[in-house]
Amino acid sequence: MKPSTRLYAWLKLLTALHIAEQLIFGMQDLQDLQHMLAIYETWFKSSSTAIAVLTTIIGALAVLAVRCIVEGGFARFVTMFALGLPTIGEVHHLVAATRARHYMPGTATAVPSLVCGVLFLRALIKEYRPSKTVRVTAAIPLQVAA
Question: What is the CA radius of gyration of the chain?
C-alpha cells in the first residue's frame, strides 16, 4: 500500500473524529454552512430545486473523483491533492482557539488532522514526482562494416 493511501485512510478517520468532536462540543462550522446554503438557495425559485441541483453536482463530482483515482496517473494525483487540501484549512480552529485564548470545538482533532494532511500531501507529491532517469550511451560507437 502506498504511503499516501495509508495517510488518506487516517485522514478519513480523523475527519470522523473531528465531526464527532464538533457535534459533542458545539459546531460553529455548521451554522456557517447553513448561512452559505441559505444564500445559495436564493438563486433558485424553490429550495427543492436548489438542493436537487447541488446534490446532482456533488454526486457527479464524487463519481468523477472515484474514476480519476481508479484511472491513476496525473488524474489520481490531482484528485487526491484536491481531497487533501481541506485538511490544511483546519488551521482555522487553531487560529480561533488562539484568538479566544481557550478551547474551541474542533481544536483537539484539528492538530492531528493538520499534521496528517501535510504528511499526506508530501507523500502524494513524492509518489508523483517522476523518478530520475539515467541516460545510457554506448561506450563504443557502432560502425557499419563497408
Answer: 23
Q: In this model, does residue 27 exceed pLDDT 70?
A: yes
CB 142 within 8 A of CB 33: no
Residue located via cell numbers 487553531: 94
| Band (105; pLDDT cuts 50, 70, 90) | confident
How far is C-alpha 123 from the geometric centre of its chain's CA atoms? 13
Which CA distances in Å does 40 have to 2, 52, 58, 100, 118?
39, 12, 14, 30, 31
**For the chain, which residues make up each domain, given as ranges?**
3-128
pTM of the model: 0.70
Distances (CA, A) of 11 to 67, 108, 124, 126: 20, 14, 13, 18
| Closest-CA residue to 76 (of 127, 116, 133) | 127
C-alpha distances in angstroms, 117 versus 11, 91, 111, 125?
7, 11, 10, 12
